[in-house]
Amino acid sequence: MDYGFASHVLLWLIGAIAAVGFVLTVVGFWSLGRSGYRKD
Which residues cross the membrane (predicted)? Predict the structure, then answer.
């Protein structure tokens, strides 16, 4: 395994973690915002 392949895998892994974190953050804020004005 050469250095270029390893750096690409690392970059994709960081990007995937960042994307998942961003989605979870958006979903979290959305659910918090919904629970704020919902009466049940």
Answer: 12-32
How far is the first Cα of the chain from the last one, in angstroms, to the nearest whole number? 56
Q: Take residue 33 and report the two structure tokens written for it.
A: 């915002």
User: pLDDT tens for residues 5-40?
Assistant: 989 999 999 999 999 999 999 999 999 888 877 665
Whole-model pTM?
A: 0.65
CA–CA distance from 27 to each of 17, 30, 35, 38 (Å)? 15, 5, 12, 16
Radius of gyration from C-alpha coordinates of the chain: 17
